[in-house]
Specification:
alpha+beta, Nuclear Transport Factor 2, Chain: A, 3 helices, 6 strands, 41% strand
């Protein structure tokens, strides 16, 4: 795991789960970046769609993750531009597990596949 991959992941978590800032999340993506949540399903292309999509998820699911009960493991892949994050958390007392696949380009997220389900 490179320091830059870990940095991208931590900035993404801070922007999305901790500060809940859709503008900051969108800024982490390349201008042509793609966010996919296949289990919802959702697919947003470009920063404007990503910003709007993240804002909608945060509005419709206002629960906050408990940082004391959250952990993650980052995995390298054979492709140096791809890494995987496994996240276990608790949101409003409910255990949540996520798998995220990041493809990066020039220090930004070019594609993120986020496997989770919003809601009960």
């Amino acid at each position: 795991m490179t320091d830059s991959q870990k940095s991208i992941f931590l900035r993404y978590v801070y922007a999305g789960a901790i500060s809940r800032d859709p503008d900051a999340v969108a800024a982490l993506f390349t201008p042509d970046g793609v966010y996919e949540a296949p289990l919802m399903p959702a697919r947003w292309s470009g920063r404007a769609e990503i910003r709007a999509g993240v804002a909608a998820i945060q509005r419709d699911n206002p629960g906050e993750a408990d940082p004391q009960r959250t952990g993650y493991v980052l995995h390298e892949t054979a492709d140096p531009d791809v890494f995987i994050a496994e996240i276990d958390s608790v949101v409003d007392g409910v255990p949540v597990a996520l798998v995220q696949i990041f493809r990066v380009r020039d220090g930004l997220i070019a594609r993120l596949r986020d496997y989770f389900r919003a809601g009960p």
